[in-house]
């Protein structure tokens, strides 16, 4: 029995993870325009987009609990790849609004299995190398999203609406085959178990609740904008399908760069809470000015700035979600955090879709911008309360 994996095992796992996310994201930029082309209203588009997050909210905790109960990760990875394959092929083989909703729901179930991916990959490494493992797999996720989303518009322009779905489905087939050969250690250290008895104590942690609320707002913004209605808006102001790749590059590259900038420059200089305030404020600003843009160049500039702002948020919130949690309960906190932020992934696009149907597509951007303002105000309020409490304690100490 091998205590750790071989280099070959790790490469196979990373390749499977890459195929998993490419398959899920290769059609993301054209999904909302595709549903509109089928005759879907803004409300229905919002429902389809939100189904991805809803399925994660419903299935992520049960999958984590079941995985810990049977002490196996690989079956859920295979399940995730199968659902990814089924999602892409169902999109490709059908041409109706109802099946579009079903197909995207399948993708949400697939994404809910990601917790098993991260747990199994971390078991390939010694405890001292866990951060290296998470860095590697996070890079694969960003790379897969960037490549998949960047190719989407070009593929549609060359071969039509269904081509990205076919490619995603075929990549899902290959990924499913790869997943059958993934190595799972016989003895898995359960580090990310989601224990029911710990849920209540974990969700009462004040910092986790605050960070989860902010993450709900942040995920609402990104799944309403770049992962939602930005591609449709770009086509409405005169851009072509092939131009969507440029818009994706404009957003995703600064988005990835910001993750490095955040940890090495911004946070050490201004602190975590001020960093969040800056990032949410500028994300709100650039989202709310989007409806005033009617040229490709300006849209690329604004999306780059928004991508950078939002790129500051997610890794910072991820780290803060567990920093106040004891080591033995951090996995439970992470599972809880991931399930909670999925609320933003389905409520944001759904509400934006309703508003867009009632008022017009610009309403969704104003709505998302206001969510950023709400997050900024909440952070300022919490900081004010913290400073007031600190001053009060200092005053009492001085008097005594």
Overview of the molecule:
The protein is mainly α. It folds into 2 domains: 1-186, Growth Hormone, Chain: A, CATH 1.20.1250; 199-387, Growth Hormone, Chain: A, CATH 1.20.1250. 82% of the residues lie in helices and 0% in strands. The protein has helices at residues 7-25, 28-37, 42-70, 74-93, 97-112, 114-122, 130-159, 163-179, 196-203, 206-236, 244-270, 272-288, 296-320, 330-359, 362-399. The chain is globular, with a radius of gyration of 21 Å.
Key features of this structure:
400 residues; mainly alpha; Growth Hormone, Chain: A; 2 domains; 15 helices; 0% strand; transmembrane; membrane; transmembrane transporter activity; cell membrane; MFS_dom
Q: What's the CATH architecture of the largest domain?
A: Up-down Bundle
CATH topology of the largest domain: Growth Hormone, Chain: A
Give the CATH level 1 class of the largest domain: Mainly Alpha
Instruction: Give the percentage of residues in beta strands.
Output: under 5%
GO molecular function: transmembrane transporter activity
Subcellular location: Cell membrane
Membrane topology: Multi-pass membrane protein
Domain Major facilitator superfamily (MFS) profile: 9-387
